[in-house]
Amino acid sequence: MIKVLIAEDIPSHNKGEAALFYGLKESLRPYADTDVRLFSLNPEIDTPNYAGDAVVVNAQGVVPEHILDGYGSTLKKIYNYINFIGKHFAFGVLHKLLKNKAFWFMRSPVWRAYVEADIILMSHDSFYTPLYHGIQALLFESLKKQAIIYAATIKPGVRNRKNIKARILNFWSCFTLKRVKYITLREGQSKTYLADIGVLNSGTPVTVYPDLAFLVKPIPSEDAWALLETEGIPENRPLVGMAVSQRKLDFAFPGRKMMNRRKEALAPIVETVNFLTDKLHATVVFIPHSIGPTEVLDDRITAKMIKDKALSPERIHIVSNEYSSHELKGMAACLDMTIGTRLHFTIDAVCSAVPSLLITHDGDFRCHGIIGEMMGMQDYVYNIDNIETGVLINKISSLWRNREQVAEELKSRIVKIEKETYLHGKTAIGLINDIEGGIPS
């Protein structure tokens, strides 16, 4: 049994992130029996949700509190990082001097999880944070651990690379990323960035395989329809699914006041919904992929904002209950088209060859790299930065007209994509075990 530590929080209330956890487990399954441990900042939520799949490690008091949602004053964030860095430095010194007797002085379960792990997986999704993962990488090197950046997106913390802050962050990222044993990425734009800052010349292997969410198994179609029926959603065709994040709206209209961006970005989306219901005569169903714990992270609230402003609210339905990543993926397969700002909602749909439009922002390596490049959907990845009603509706009209062709293109790619995703797991387990055979069929 290989002890695997996921050394960061993957919040179970965010179903896109939870999908990455289940995809991660599936990617390892063919190659080893694993005992997975997972950090959590909300163990009271994550422990029951991940029961049977992972042992949840309470990371409160060690992992910076703001690292999940980015909220908090600058002073609070600085304090959180000083606390995090100081404790990691202290544990590194104590363990070097006292070995496991260091646990007498530092009692958080985080430290024991570090020491007991056979392999440590870092930086799920776009979670890579130079201060957080850099400090961890130095400690793991000191502990002689097999640490791997796993299925990650890594992008610049500052877009202007001539900026002094960008130079410092790039230097630090390069210096610390050289300390891990391997880096697997989920899109090519991150690899280009790592090449630019010198990581590819360091000797640390870097490979690119697809996103882990491609490996999540959906529930059967009949079960998915039963869940939709309990939500009061009729089997009217066409059935268009949507998932809209409040925080994605904040990327609209850079340069304008933040307080106005969400309201101004919402208006074209409302007009898009009106087009779907009144021109395509579609039934629109909002399928939330994040339901808290705060209001800004609850997609149901965004959906209600849109429904309240729409011309035909009777044709709009909001899924209100919490469902697993497997159930949500099954629901996505029941749809005729999807439109949304959630990457993993879109991945759920394209896995079943459902034509999809992904709304993102310029510089989002994940969406452009995974859906645009890997899935060949560049024409249907739309940047919200300067969102316009007419342009957005034209994109959707094009997708609907070409839906059969798009579906065939998706079908031609998905089997290969799913097989290649297992290579993340083969790479990780291969660091400590000899592996025979190839990718699972």
Describe the structure in your own words.
The protein is of the alpha/beta class and 441 residues long. It has two domains: 2-214 and 419-430, 3-Layer(aba) Sandwich (Rossmann fold); 219-351 and 356-401, Rossmann fold (3-Layer(aba) Sandwich), CATH 3.40.50. The protein is built from 17 helices and 13 strands. The strands form two sheets. A seven-stranded parallel β-sheet has the order 3-2-1-4-5-6-7, sandwiched between helices. It has a six-stranded parallel β-sheet with strand order 10-9-8-11-12-13, with helices on both faces. Strand 12 (356-360), helix 14 and strand 13 (381-383) form a beta-alpha-beta unit. The radius of gyration is 22 Å and the shape is globular.
What labels describe this entry?
globular, 17 helices, Rossmann fold, 441 residues, 2 domains, alpha/beta, seven-stranded parallel sheet, six-stranded parallel sheet
Précis, in short:
This is Polysaccharide pyruvyl transferase domain-containing protein. The chain has 441 residues and is of the alpha/beta class. Helix content is 46%, strand content 14%.
